[in-house]
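Retro notes (design track)

What went well: tokenization of the new backbones is finally stable.
What didn't: we kept losing track of which sequence belonged to which structure.
Fix going forward: every design gets posted as structure first, then sequence, in one message. First example under the new rule, 437 residues:
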């Protein structure tokens, strides 16, 4: 019996010697299968703000299938915003910081803004506009409304030593129409001379080299206003509608994009999606834009497009109200008021403007309420828009209703309106170390 047991043990050893290489391979195969299972499992997670959120593994992961994560929006009229369709990068972080700004921010305004209109022939360049809702202001409405809102706000301090920022209150739009300062060269000379006067009469400029100073303009000629004063150009903050990477004097990390808005005193009631029977609307001059010329040539005969060179054959706002998508196409400048018009009327903006530094982009996720395409994609425009899933479009439409208050100006500023959002952009640039005066 001992011999038999020995023979069985010997056979087992022989089999083990034969199977041993295969056992190693089997272990490797099992480990690979386990890793693949883990990897597959991880694909069913979406990473949001440092937290992994699991979704149903049977669903195809996409915008319209994701389970919504509901976040209570404490300061937004009780709206419920989901993390995957919210128009904000991080609403809660922004809301907390905004409240801190409201309590803390201080801005010193140079006294030229408070002088009498009879004090000097140049007084009108500095004092607030007497009728900011005059339709003739057109594209330059935001420039005037900012000054009026700031001067009437609690942010203004008479103690320059406690100020975070210093406002240089000249108006490029007024200069452009001033009988003694109206050419581009004269405006550049005036701004350079004013900056020198500020730096010689006050100590605040020299404490930071002008880095905590800012000025506001929406007139296209203003993009070169600082060209004859090196420190004003390199150091100070320009709050401008002409927020383009392509502009030689615009510095993206320093300067601030100002929403270009037309004078309107009443908020529009949004037309619902099912009442929007046209795919696309655009009306505007094409003479100064190759992209607009291509747009007209390619799509003027398409019945789903309302494309006009110049004015439309029906009221301008009707084009926004009856269309799902409204085009913003670069003209002479990268910026136009069509973006804010589209937002105001609930028409999803389609941005076809290269080099555009979008206003409020550090707070708003523009991909959640607009479509951004390159100018070279104009021939593919219809295919791009028709490929947008219905639920994605409905999410963008809903978000327009949320964000449009950020693109509105009021006679009496309201919380989270365009004025407060621009001031918040300044707030984010605070903290510059200054020497004592």
């Amino acid at each position: 019996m001992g011999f038999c047991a020995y023979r069985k043990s010997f056979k087992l050893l022989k089999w083990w010697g034969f199977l041993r290489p295969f056992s190693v391979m089997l272990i490797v195969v099992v480990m690979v299968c386990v890793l693949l299972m883990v990897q597959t499992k991880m694909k069913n997670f979406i990473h949001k703000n440092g937290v992994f959120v699991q979704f149903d593994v049977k669903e195809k992961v996409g915008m319209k299938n994701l389970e919504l994560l509901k976040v209570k929006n404490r300061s937004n009229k009780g709206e419920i915003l989901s993390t995957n369709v919210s128009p904000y990068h991080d609403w809660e972080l922004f809301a907390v910081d905004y409240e801190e700004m409201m309590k803390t921010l201080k801005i010193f305004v140079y006294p030229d803004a408070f002088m009498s209109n009879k004090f000097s022939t140049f007084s009108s360049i500095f004092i607030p506009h007497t009728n900011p809702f005059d339709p003739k202001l057109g594209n330059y409405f935001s420039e005037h409304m900012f000054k009026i809102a700031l001067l009437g706000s609690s942010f203004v301090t008479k103690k320059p030593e406690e100020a975070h920022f210093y406002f240089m209150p000249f108006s490029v739009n007024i200069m452009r129409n001033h009988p003694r300062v109206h050419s581009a060269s004269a405006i550049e000379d005036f701004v350079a001379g004013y900056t020198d006067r500020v730096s010689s009469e006050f100590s605040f400029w020299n404490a930071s080299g002008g880095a905590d100073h800012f000025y506001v303009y929406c007139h296209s000629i203003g993009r070169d206003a600082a060209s004859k004063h090196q420190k004003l150009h390199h150091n100070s903050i320009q709050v401008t509608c002409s927020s383009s990477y392509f502009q030689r004097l615009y510095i993206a990390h320093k300067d601030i994009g100002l929403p270009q808005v037309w004078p309107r005193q009443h908020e529009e009631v949004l037309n619902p999606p099912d009442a929007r029977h046209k795919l696309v609307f655009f009306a505007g001059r094409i003479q100064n834009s190759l992209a607009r010329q291509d747009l007209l040539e390619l799509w003027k005969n398409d019945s789903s497009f309302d494309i006009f060179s110049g004015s439309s054959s029906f009221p301008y706002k009707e084009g926004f109200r009856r269309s799902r998508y409204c085009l913003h196409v670069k003209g002479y400048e990268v910026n136009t008021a069509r973006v804010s018009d589209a937002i105001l009327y609930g028409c999803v903006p389609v941005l076809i403007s290269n080099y555009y530094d979008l206003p409020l982009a550090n707070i708003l996720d523009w991909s959640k309420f607009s479509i951004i395409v390159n100018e070279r994609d104009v021939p593919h425009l219809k295919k791009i828009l028709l490929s947008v899933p219905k639920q994605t479009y409905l999410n963008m439409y809903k978000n327009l209703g949320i964000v449009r208050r950020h693109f509105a100006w009021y006679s009496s500023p309201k919380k989270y309106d365009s004025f407060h959002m621009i001031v918040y952009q300044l707030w984010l640039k605070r903290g510059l170390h200054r020497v004592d005066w």
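Added context from the reviewer: The chain has a mean pLDDT of 82.
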